[in-house]
């Protein structure tokens, strides 16, 4: 495999690099704020994950045959556009996607949920290098990773926030399930889901939403994520990291296949009017 790999080839939205034998870096660059559109997910992000997994598994099989643990190591860093340090991901293109009449029935079960499933079952550790704001679907993407390294806010503001409640959008079952799996504290979940709270880096660290803070620009955050990766990249050597993770997040993974039609506030009010 020759790196870097950019996908899709005609209009790249992600780039995968392989800076060390045990590390892959997936950079999202769907514009400056890395919106999670159907094209981005289907033609760029998921194929990039396939490339990383395929390469790691090839190395792992050789390593197993030769009893060389160095070939079995692996970790993946996911980072927002490295030419800026304002956004990790600004989430879905909700305004554009909502104009699609099939959005509520297709996007989550067919496109977004399989992406979360892919991350929750990935065979090597995943680290989100949160190099700026992570809003809504962007926060869900970061939370679906195993670890999170976040900008410390000294250069500019950086927030984790599920802000759907502020613009009248309901959260699908899949997103709530991932949030519950990664942040089981009820008070924190209330602030995330019902208040749409903007969590600062210090709040994120104290509440366990992120694992490390890093000073400086995007490259400093990636460097800290790489330092973290080097402490855990040997854990997949026996091939059971992904298997154990599937058991750890069994309930969340099961919920990804159960999303039903999303009920909006007006529909809920109409049902209440008929009932009361």
Automatic annotation (TrEMBL):
Alphabetical GO CC annotations of the entry are: peroxisome
Q: Which InterPro entries match?
A: ClpP/crotonase-like_dom_sf (IPR029045), Enoyl-CoA_hyd/isom_CS (IPR018376), Enoyl-CoA_hydra/iso (IPR001753)
Is this entry keyworded Glycoprotein?
no
**Which terms does the UniProt entry file under GO BP?**
fatty acid beta-oxidation
Q: Which UniProt keywords apply?
A: Isomerase
Q: Does the keyword GTP-binding apply?
A: no
User: What Gene Ontology molecular function terms does this protein carry?
Assistant: delta(3)-delta(2)-enoyl-CoA isomerase activity
- Name the domain of life: Eukaryota
- Belongs to which family? Belongs to the enoyl-CoA hydratase/isomerase family.
Protein name in the entry:
Enoyl-CoA delta isomerase 3
Organism (species)? Trametes pubescens
């Amino acid at each position: 495999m020759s790196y870097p790999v950019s996908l899709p080839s005609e209009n790249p939205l992600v780039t995968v690099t392989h800076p060390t034998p045990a590390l892959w870096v997936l950079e999202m660059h769907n514009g400056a704020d890395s919106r999670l559109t159907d094209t981005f997910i289907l033609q760029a992000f998921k194929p990039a994950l396939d490339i990383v997994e395929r390469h790691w598994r090839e190395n792992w099989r050789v390593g197993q045959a030769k009893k060389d643990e160095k070939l079995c190591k692996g970790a993946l860093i996911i980072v927002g556009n490295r030419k800026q340090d304002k956004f990790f991901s600004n989430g879905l293109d909700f305004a554009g996607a909502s104009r699609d009449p099939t959005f509520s029935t297709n996007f989550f079960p067919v496109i977004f949920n399989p992406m979360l499933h892919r991350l929750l079952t990935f065979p090597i550790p995943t680290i989100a290098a949160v190099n700026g704001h992570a809003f809504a679907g962007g926060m869900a993407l970061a939370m679906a990773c195993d670890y999170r390294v976040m900008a410390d806010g000294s250069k500019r503001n950086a927030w984790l926030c599920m802000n759907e409640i502020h613009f009248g959008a309901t959260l699908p079952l899949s997103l709530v399930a991932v949030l519950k799996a990664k942040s089981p504290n009820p008070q924190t979940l209330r602030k995330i889901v019902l208040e749409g709270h903007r969590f600062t880096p210090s709040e994120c660290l104290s509440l366990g939403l992120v694992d490390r803070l890093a000073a400086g620009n995007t490259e400093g955050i990636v460097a800290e994520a790489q330092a973290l990766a080097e402490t855990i990249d040997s854990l997949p050597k026996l091939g059971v990291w992904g298997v154990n993770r599937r058991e750890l997040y069994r309930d969340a993974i099961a919920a990804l296949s159960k999303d039903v039609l999303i009920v909006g506030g007006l529909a809920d009010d109409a049902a209440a009017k008929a009932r009361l």
